[in-house]
Write a structure and sequence with these properties.
Keywords: Cytoplasm, DNA-binding, Repeat, Transcription, Transcription regulation
Low-confidence stretches: none
Number of strands: 8
Number of helices: 6
Protein name: Transcriptional regulator MraZ
InterPro entries: MraZ, MraZ_C, MraZ_dom, MraZ_N, MraZ_sf, SpoVT-AbrB_dom, SpoVT-AbrB_sf
Distance between the termini: 20 Å
Domain SpoVT-AbrB: 5-47, 74-117
Subcellular location: Cytoplasm, Nucleoid
Strand order of the largest sheet: 1-7-8-4-3-5
Order of helices and strands: EEHEEHHEEHEEHH
Largest sheet: 6 strands, antiparallel
Mean pLDDT: 94
Strand content: 25-35%
Helix content: 40-55%
């Protein structure tokens, strides 16, 4: 399970260190693609395959937008010896990644956020909204 929050920087070449704890869970190779709310999703091969299978099982009328969104800009990653990955320019632009980033664990995937956008997203969460969501879980 991918949990926790880690702050890192992107270097001028577009490389970022993937937290070692995440590398353990993601494996030697993993996938980065556009995510929701302006972040990037980071998926292990197993989770990538599940996403692909679920989308491909949908009728094309519903699947084509998801196929285009998730697969067109996806990149397979293999960290270097320092644990860094080179993020393609189009993914950095999509997520607004320039310097300070936050890697967060989101259970079966990691997410990569611009640090300021992550703080802004969190500032919009209220205890009331969380409590309502927890009601759905019957907690």
């Amino acid at each position: 399970m991918l949990i926790g929050e880690y702050q890192h920087n992107i270097d001028p070449k577009g490389r970022v260190i993937v937290p070692s704890k995440f590398r353990e869970d993601l494996g030697e190779r993993f996938y980065v693609t556009k995510g929701l709310d302006g972040c990037l999703f980071v998926l292990s091969p197993t989770e990538w395959d599940k996403l692909q299978e679920k989308i491909m099982a949908m009728p094309i009328s519903k699947a084509r937008s998801l196929q285009r969104f998730f697969f067109s800009g996806a990149a397979e990653m293999e960290p270097d010896k320092q644990g860094r990955i080179l993020l393609p320019q189009h993914l950095r632009e999509y997520a607004g990644l320039t310097k300070d980033v936050a890697f967060i664990g989101a259970s079966r995937r990691a997410e990569l956020w611009d640090a300021a956008r992550w703080r802004e997203f969190n500032s919009g969460l209220t205890e009331e909204a969380i409590a309502e969501a927890m009601d759905e879980l019957e907690l």
